[in-house]
């Protein structure tokens, strides 16, 4: 049976933890740090980069590196404030009025949930490496100001990452 982890999905950094002997333990990621930058990017060869690797290329390839994604999750285009669009990458609305993030190197558009799902997947992979067993589900924290749509979109991102959300 797989374990359940807790994920603090942050705008800037994210953290994964597990209960061991009744106490929470923050799990270090593959790079050896306890926080993982909430950044997703694609290299020139279209290789997926998540966390510290993505943050390293933020300055060199800002159009193919995506941060502050949490501000777009579960929001329709017309709900966004002008200041939330001041990011170095391209954010646009699709025909249905949903937010889409354009990546020139992969020549495709992503829903914010897809990219956040990649962050969650990295956190789960790091937890599985640490624990030496499968992680089946997670409890994911979201800000108190998140509405139902944003909460559901966070849950959808986790499902895209292949993980069940207990809460």
Secondary-structure class: alpha+beta
Q: Percent range for helical residues?
A: 10-25%
* Computed Rg: 16 Å
Q: How many β-strands, per DSSP?
A: 12
| Strand coverage percent | 25-35%
User: Helical stretch count?
Assistant: 3
Q: What would you note in describing this structure?
A:
This protein has 167 residues and is an alpha+beta fold. The chain contains three helices and twelve strands. It has helices at residues 52-56, 112-131, 148-160; strands at residues 3-8, 13-20, 23-26, 36-37, 40-42, 48-50, 65-66, 90-93, 99-103, 108-110, 135-141, 164-165. Strands 1, 2, 3, 4, 11 and 12 form a six-stranded mixed sheet that branches. Strands 6-5-7 form a three-stranded antiparallel sheet. A hairpin with a 5-residue loop joins β5 (40-42) and β6. α2 crosses α3 (148-160). The chain is globular and about 50 Å long. The model has no long low-confidence stretch (mean pLDDT 95).
Task: Please describe the topology of this protein.
Blueprint: E1 3-8, E2 13-20, E3 23-26, E4 36-37, E5 40-42, E6 48-50, H1 52-56, E7 65-66, E8 90-93, E9 99-103, E10 108-110, H2 112-131, E11 135-141, H3 148-160, E12 164-165
Parallel strand pairs: 1-11, 11-12
Antiparallel strand pairs: 1-2, 2-3, 2-4, 5-6, 5-7, 8-9, 9-10
């Amino acid at each position: 049976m797989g374990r359940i982890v807790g994920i603090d999905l942050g705008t800037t950094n994210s953290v994964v933890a597990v209960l061991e002997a009744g106490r929470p333990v923050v799990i270090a990621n593959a790079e050896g740090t306890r926080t993982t930058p909430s950044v997703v990017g694609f290299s020139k060869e279209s290789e997926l980069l998540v966390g510290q690797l993505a943050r390293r290329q933020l300055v060199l390839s800002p159009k193919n590196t995506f941060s502050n994604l949490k501000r777009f999750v579960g929001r329709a285009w017309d709900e966004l404030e002008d200041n939330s669009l001041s990011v170095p990458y391209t954010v646009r609305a699709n025909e249905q009025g949903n937010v889409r993030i354009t990546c020139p190197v992969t020549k495709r558009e992503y829903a914010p949930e897809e990219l956040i799902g990649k962050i969650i997947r990295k956190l789960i992979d790091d937890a599985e490496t640490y624990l030496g067993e499968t992680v089946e589900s997670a409890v994911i924290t979201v800000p108190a100001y998140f509405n139902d749509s944003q909460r559901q979109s966070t849950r959808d991102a986790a499902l895209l990452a292949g993980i069940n959300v207990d809460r």
